[in-house]
């Protein structure tokens, strides 16, 4: 059952990205409300080049339309410890169940002599790009660059929404963020038993910025039940992840969400994950008047993000090792 009376709020962030206004107090309040009530919000007025977005969509469509063997030329097992490349439908698990989606994993493009790559750190390294669609490389790199800039501005907005100084997160966690980017293709449900494109989960980091095409299928678990987050032209869907839940002691919840493509066409989506630096320890923020919310029973995985200790990398690797059990699992 979907509750169609409740909607994820829409926030215009033009002032935040163009930095034209000295006062962001109204917007900061909107962000606070949205993060507390939904853990999700749409952004408009973000200024991300529409032409580039269109190009990204077209090239991605072109990639997924190819036969499996061609797509497998950049398969994840060739990406080694960097965990980059293509995975076919059914290979990624959410809560132990295969998702009805295929996709490509990307991340910050790091040279072999980068210290983290030299140390053999999982999830760091070079991307795998398809040689037969050469424009995809520059388009993805440019898109990740713009999303990274946007991520920094949104974290400034989130800091303000918590009554913190604008640079709070940059100073402690996201000066050099962990960047992961994925392109997913959700085929239509062919069988009568409709399968989840991605099952119920929360995201792991601080902030996800999602571009979705015009098909729809994303659902968010709001306080009044599951609601749709339908496509809104030239918007992005933002949601907060487990690390922001942890930092705010549950004031900003990492909200469960899931996807089911009930249309008869493929659905493309482009989640961009703006996460804390891999090697930093994520600690609670000293917030005034915050009632700690750590009710594990209502979390999808019955786990507490508040109990773990260690770096963001430790948290992430523990999670993702369950998603792709067959990939390299050791850091060194
Ligand atoms: O495809 C979508 O709309 C959402 C994907 C998602 O939730 C994720 O990758 O974490
Ligand atoms: Fe997600």
From TrEMBL:
Which keywords are on file for this protein? Answer: Iron, Metal-binding, Oxidoreductase
Keyword Nucleotide-binding in the entry? The reply is no
Q: For the Fe2OG dioxygenase domain, which residue ranges apply? A: 176-276
Fetch the SUPFAM superfamilies from UniProt. Clavaminate synthase-like (SSF51197)
Q: Name one GO molecular function term.
A: metal ion binding
Q: In which pathway does it act?
A: Antibiotic biosynthesis
**Which Pfam families does the annotation name?**
2OG-FeII_Oxy (PF03171), DIOX_N (PF14226)
Asked whether the keyword Metal-binding is assigned, the reply is yes
Family assignment?
Belongs to the iron/ascorbate-dependent oxidoreductase family.
Q: What is this protein called?
A: Iron oxidase
In which organism is this protein found? Answer: Nostoc piscinale CENA21
